[in-house]
Structure prediction request, 67 residues.
Amino acid sequence: MPDSLPTKLPGIVNHLGPDSFADHGLRPFFQYRELGLRDLTGGWVGAHVIRSKPGKHPDAPRHTHDL
Prediction:
């Protein structure tokens, strides 16, 4: 990760179709699509869209994350 966040960042717009989701990720019942912020910010920010797979039910226990 870089030492500092760039002070001026270019903007991005992502118009991707429904086939842009990937089946690999943290949970097997979700699909993920990266938004490209990791590359844009030099690793400082990462974000993705998550959607559930049709017909799949969560098999992970309920949990929380401390931030």
In short: The chain has a mean pLDDT of 78. The two ends are 19 Å apart (CA to CA).
